Amino acid sequence: MNKKTLVLGASLKLDRYSNIALRKLVNYNHSTVAFGMKEGQVEGVTIDTQLQQYQDLDTITLYLNPTRQKEYYDYIIGLNPKRVIFNPGTENPELYQLLTANGIDYEVACTLVLLSTNQY
């Protein structure tokens, strides 16, 4: 099943987990969009450096530490995804509460593991 996903904190660096996840999402045929600090392309997906109002998102997978996430709280909630995945190092109880209050599910998990084990 195709789950449109936003990689929030995407990197052009091949060794970064956000980059690996972006490539794996594309390889698993999930519609993928990305936001990061540096514009570029990964597997044909443009990394946007300006916030976009992406439509019909199933998942936002986070690759920003909790301190950096704060400025994106309203943005994440406003996109109204079905779920947010907190990858290792992004765990944030404050954002969990905000998501729950807005009816958005979240998982503390690793996108790469979820994809590899067909649990995405």
Question: What keyword list fits this structure?
Answer:
25% strand, alpha/beta, 7-stranded mixed sheet, 31% helix, 120 residues, 7 strands
Kindly describe this structure:
The chain is an alpha/beta fold. Strands 3-4-2-1-5-6-7 form a 7-stranded mixed β-sheet, sandwiched between helices. The longest helix is centred in the N-terminal third of the chain and has 11 residues. It is globular and about 35 Å long.
Our count of helices gives: 5
Helix content: 25-40%
Structural class: alpha/beta
Give average pLDDT, whole number.
Answer: 97
Q: What series of H and E elements makes up the topology? A: EHEEEEHHEHEH
Kindly state the number of beta strands: 7
Secondary-structure blueprint:
Blueprint: E1 5-10, H1 17-27, E2 32-36, E3 40-42, E4 45-48, E5 59-62, H2 66-69, H3 73-79, E6 83-86, H4 93-101, E7 105-108, H5 111-116
Parallel strand pairs: 1-2, 1-5, 2-4, 5-6, 6-7
Antiparallel strand pairs: 3-4
Task: Give a concise summary.
It is built from five helices and seven strands.
